[in-house]
Design brief:
The protein is an alpha/beta fold. Helix content is 38%, strand content 13%. It has 14 helices and eleven strands. It has helices at residues 3-10, 32-38, 96-102, 136-155, 167-178, 204-222, 235-242, 251-260, 269-275, 285-297, 308-315, 345-354, 373-376, 380-396; strands at 44-49, 54-61, 74-77, 107-111, 120-121, 160-165, 186-192, 227-228, 283-284, 332-336, 358-363. The strands form two sheets. Strands 1, 2, 3, 4, 5, 6, 7, 10 and 11 form a nine-stranded mixed beta sheet that branches. Helix 4 (136-155) crosses helix 5 (167-178) and helix 6 crosses helix 10 (285-297).
Length: 397
């Protein structure tokens, strides 16, 4: 074998691509638990039952050593149409779950109801209309409290840290305002691209969905579809054909840019390719409709049932109640992107002005940082994750 052939065999797969990360194509075909094991981290899987019967998947990366240090556990919660894979997708030394674990934190990742890992119920079939009759309100009201209680029970802790990305932040503020007793169970909340106010959207794809969500849901209800973009094992194989990983600026990459915002210089080509094997991971049609309602209503409010009588039955008023953010008393740290086409900086500033216990608000120091960059960007560790770790270190000290 020639010397250049030997070097080719030895060279890691990630070096063939424009990638900053030690990951490879096979990562797109693995489940979250398989990724964690592949990269040598300990793992536990737990089930959480909610008071309305949903059974959720909860993944833990426990501390490697039983050191004298006793840190609070950290809960990571993903975005819409996503899964726990968001927090491990860019591999060791880069993904936030691994970085926390490397620093001896007790890491927990929730998969919310309806995604590929949390599709069970105590008595409802996941193919039934009744199973999918929830928006992100129910996830915040039922899933998060049940998960927090389970983590605190298993770790014998009284509080935990919370890191939410996109919809993961929405869920948190639903819980904090509708079940305010849980404010006392969270020591600090890190909000990455908080999705509470969603006006001024720059993504033409999301704007179209927001304008047509009601008609789209009515159509899907008519034909018996109550979920959107469920995970399919074939989706990664299809992308390999349509958008090969070695090609730049594929139609897939352009579509993602139209959704989250362009950042060609900061986007990791291989990571963006791999995530298509994980996302979309499924959600209810009501989740998307609820976000579309926020876009039109211009306020952070509960689900609008569309008919005055239905709202009267559910809320005792013709309009859905707004979430009272003054009830959210947890200390909050915000990070947002200036080129986020899903969550405009003006929305984040509005949120900042309504929070009663804001620790800090931080625009990411990259003018092109977009919505998906909080998970995949080449420099997301130095721009965001290291700052969270430093803040946690100061809190622990």
């Amino acid at each position: 074998m020639r010397k250049d052939e030997i070097e080719s065999v030895k060279r890691p797969l990630y070096m063939y691509y424009d990638s900053n990360f030690m990951i490879d194509e096979t990562d797109g075909a693995l489940e979250t638990s398989e990724l964690i094991r592949k990269y040598g981290y300990p793992i536990e899987t737990h089930k959480v039952s909610t008071s309305d019967g949903y059974i959720l998947s909860l993944t833990r990366i426990p501390p490697r050593s039983q050191s004298s240090r006793r840190s609070l556990p950290v809960l990571l919660v993903h975005g819409l149409f996503a899964s726990s894979a968001d927090f491990v997708i860019i591999g060791p030394n880069n993904s936030i779950a691994y970085l926390l674990a490397d620093n001896e934190y007790d890491v927990w990742m929730l998969d919310v109801r309806g995604n590929r890992y949390s599709r069970h119920h105590e008595h409802l079939d996941s193919r039934s209309k009744e199973y999918w009759d929830f928006s992100w309100h129910e996830i915040g009201y039922y899933d998060l409290p049940a998960t927090i209680d389970r983590i605190l029970e298993l770790t014998h802790s009284k509080r935990l840290y919370y890191v939410g990305y996109s919809q993961g932040t929405t869920l948190f503020f639903v819980m904090a305002t509708t079940r305010p007793e849980y404010n006392g169970k969270v020591a600090r909340m890190y909000a990455l691209s908080p999705a509470l106010y969603v006006q001024h959207v720059r993504s033409p794809i999301f704007r179209w969905l927001a304008e047509n969500a009601s008609d789209l849901k009515a159509l899907l209800d008519t034909i018996g579809i109550w979920q959107l973009f469920p995970h399919n094992s074939a989706q990664y194989k299809i992308q390999k054909i349509l958008c090969p990983s070695h090609k730049k600026r594929t139609i897939c990459a352009r579509f993602v840019e139209l959704l989250v915002g362009p950042n060609p210089g900061g986007t990791d080509q291989l990571a963006q390719y791999i995530i298509s094997g994980h996302n979309p991971s499924g959600a209810s049609t009501k989740q998307l409709l609820h976000f579309a309602q926020l876009n039109r209503a211009g306020r952070f409010q509960q689900f609008d049932y569309g008919h005055l009588n239905d709202n009267l039955i559910h809320y005792g008023s013709e309009t859905p109640p707004a979430y009272n953010l003054s009830l959210a008393t947890v200390p909050v740290v915000i990070y947002y992107g200036l080129n986020d086409w899903m969550i405009h900086p003006r929305n984040v500033i509005r949120l900042k002005n309504e929070l009663v216990n804001l620790v800090s608000i931080n625009a990411v120091a990259d003018l092109n940082f977009n919505h998906l960059d909080f998970i995949l960007a080449k420099q997301v560790r130095s721009l965001v994750y290291d700052k969270i770790l430093k803040d946690l270190e100061q809190l622990e000290a």
